[in-house]
Known about the structure:
CATH topology of the domain at 17-54 and 112-158 and 394-546: FAD/NAD(P)-binding domain
Number of helices: 17
CATH architecture of the domain at 17-54 and 112-158 and 394-546: 3-Layer(bba) Sandwich
Largest sheet: 8 strands, mixed
Helix content: 25-40%
Number of strands: 20
CATH superfamily of the domain at 17-54 and 112-158 and 394-546: FAD/NAD(P)-binding domain
Oligomer: single chain
Amino acid sequence: MLDQNTSSQAAPSDQDEVTLDALVIGAGVGGLYQLYQLREQGLSVAAVEAASDVGGTWFWNRYPGARFDSEGYIYQYLFDEALYKDWSWSERFPGQPEIERWMQYVTDRLDLRKNIRFGTTVTAAHFDEATARWRVTTDTGVTYSTQFLVSCTGVLSVPLGGLYPGEDTFEGDILHTSRWPEGGIDVTGKRVGVIGTGATGVQVIQTIAPQVADLTVFVRTPQYIIPMKNPKYGPSDVEAYKDRFDELRSTLFNTFTGFEYDFEVAWADLTPEQRLERLETLYEDGSLKIWLAGFAEILSQQDVSEEVSEFVRGKMRERLKDPELIETLVPTEYGFGTRRVPLDTGYLEAYRRDNVHAVNLRKTAISHIEAKGIRMQDGTLHELDVIVMAVGFDASTGALARIDVRGRDGRSLREDWGRDIRTTMGLQKHGYPNLFLTGAPLAPSAALCNLPTCLQQQTEWISDCIRHVRTTGQTSIEPLEATEDAWVAHHDEIANATLIAKTDSWWVGSNVDGKPRRVLAYAGGANTYKDKCRDVAESGYLGFRLT
């Protein structure tokens, strides 16, 4: 299944001008598979990647404690059984170094390096209506002329920066978690401050707490925390999950969030005792199961949300014990599951160490950063040697918005999304022919899906669409405005009925000043989304303009 047609492969080139059938931006989970599929079609295709190697988020996120919170055996490609079975994970939720090695394994197994130009950032992509081709410029001076352009730039790839005055005056090290130095940084015996307690902040804090002299955590929004159970795998464990390959391949693409588990029972169908018993069982699983396979009603019904939220709060209180820590670290202003749920390994217990201090930013905010540390609005100075920014990303739209993307009539994608974040199924955008998107707004992969599941489904749809355009003798495809309007309306009807829409988070873009508010991820389920995408393809792309 891995035999490759090499007649049309496009190797990275030192030419100033490169002509292609297709160009892929990004060499992460989506980009690698997209490159492979288009090359298998016999297209002249290449990928460009800003990093020096493959991996996407797993190249950039080298911070201490970075690891999966999807089980390793489902965070995989499922298009080839041998590719799947010839890699073995060492534990249930592997860490970043092992994940990066896996992505390198996939790249080398599929012989993709020769088609990737590393150290290359796309600066502009302009559609030429006369030729129906994209002209793509890069920071290396190489320009690409390509019929099809596929963005695999990642959901969380543009870190927020410049949030606090005086960052450039700090005399120590300021590090963003997604731009962690490749060789790491030694924090042993240092005074470290961490700003942010999302999933990334949780992993950093619990990892470095025993190493540093003093750790000050600036808590902006407390998170619902679920303990991770992460057993090491022996040969029998590895054999057991590999034997499930066919089961996983048939299951993952047909669940609400692309995980192996799904919502199975309705809240109203159980007695209070049965509900509690189910919550206890799911909590003890030590995974995201309590969130993604508990009760779907937590996303839409306030009374159910409150009861499940209080269950998780109770578990957190038991672990924290201290009333002041409970006030600082246990969320009460939003419901469980309406924001990203982190898994932890001793995160809450870290705050009970003598060298760890939690600063409640809801009581006193950060004023600015100065030479010696972080100054609060009440005048307090926290003297630090290292500041870790776990402050989040311009999610889903940020990577493409950094590029000067211009479609028909010179329209700007940055300006379009600056007014209103709209796509057609998160796969294309009206006004931008032959531009394909992955991990984009209004698709489950923007937040509510096990990413490899959704990225495989999306890149396969894109590959089939490109094949259709070529085999029917057309040159371009673009959704009609009415088609986009209909998808946005459908998306919003579902999203706005959820509690997610009422909760501030990166899921709605509220963490970025001036970003239009819209639930970024399709909330109708990855399984439903897959079926709707399939229906479009089977209709011959009804509602799309082919020329």
